[in-house]
Write a structure and sequence with these properties.
alpha+beta, 1 helix, single chain, 5 strands, five-stranded antiparallel sheet
């Protein structure tokens, strides 16, 4: 299970997990709301969130977040 304080690195970009909040959907499915920050050198993003099933592997989602960030990085960093 993912925990607050963990850091994952993909292609030189770090993703730090800030908070993990378990909850249940109205159908009773166990989910996690995960708050994270992207750290790229001296740039640190504001906190953002994603949601995944509790039993899911977090790594593919982290890789997707980093790919999306890299695609738009030039708009944030000048």
């Amino acid at each position: 299970m993912v925990r607050a304080g963990e850091e994952h690195e993909v292609e030189g970009i770090r993703v730090r997990i800030e908070e993990v909040m378990p909850y249940r959907t109205f159908r009773g499915r166990r989910m996690l709301m995960i708050a994270y920050r992207i750290i790229d050198g001296d740039f640190t993003s504001p906190v953002a969130h994603f949601w995944i099933p509790e039993e899911a592997d977090i790594r593919p989602k982290i890789e997707e977040i980093v790919r999306n960030y890299l695609a738009i990085r030039g708009r944030f960093r000048r």
